[in-house]
Design a protein that fits this description.
Helix content is 32%, strand content 19%. By secondary structure, it is of the alpha/beta class. It has an eight-stranded mixed sheet, with helices on one face. Helix 7 (176-185) runs parallel beside helix 8. The longest helix has 15 residues, at 143-157.
Length: 237
Amino acid sequence: MKILIKGMIETSLLDWDGKIVSTLYTPYCNFRCPYCQNAGLVLNPDQYETISFELISDFLLSHRNWIDGVCLTGGEPCFFEDLTEFLEKIRNLGMQIKLDTNGTFPEVLKRAIDMDLIDYIAMDIKAPLTFDAYKKSARIRSKELFDRVRESVNLIVNSGVDYEFRTTVVPTLHSPEDIVDIAREIEGARKYALQNFSNRETMDPEFQKIVPYKNEELQEIRKRALPYVQSCVVRGK
C-alpha cells in the first residue's frame, strides 16, 4: 500500500521537543489501543481528505526559514511499504525528520535508519514488555506482532539515531509498578516520556469514564522510573 497523509498540523511546538515542525498523520494501525486519541484515522480513514505531497512540499518550502522539520505520526507510518521513498522526498526538501512508531515493523525501521532518513525516533511502549500485558493495552492477538516490538526496542537503542521511548499512562491499564517495570526493561535508555492519558476522545468509549492520573502522581511515578533511564519526563496535564 502506498503512503497516505490524512492530516497535517502546519506548525507544532509540541511534537518534537525543541523543534518547530509540521506534523503529518498517516492512517491505519495494527494496534487497537482502547485509549487511542486518533480512532478515526485507524478505523475510518476514508472520512478524511488525502493531502497531496505537492501541498505538503509547497508549505514546507515556503516556510523553510521557520519550520525545522517534519513529524510523521499516525496511525502507524511504518505500515506503508513506500515509507522510505516518502521520507527521501521530505529529506530532499532539507527537512529534519522525526518518526513516531509502535515498533511492529522493525524491518521498515531498520531500512529507514540505514538510509539515514530519520533524525529522531519516538517509539510507544504500550505496557510492560510481555505478550499478556500488550494483549490488554494494545488489544493484539499475535505473539509475532509483540516479538517485533521487542526487536524494535533493541534496534533503536543500538541505532545511533536520537530517540525516546514513551508510554501513555492510563489508570486501570498501568500501575506505578508497571511503569517502573517498563523503565527497568529499557534500562539505560536515553529518554523515557510519560504521557498523561486524555479521556476526551477514546477508541473505546468506556475509557472516557476513566479519570487520568494527577500530575503530582505522574511526577512520583517519574521519580521511581528515573534511576533506570538517563532522562524521564512527564508530558500533559
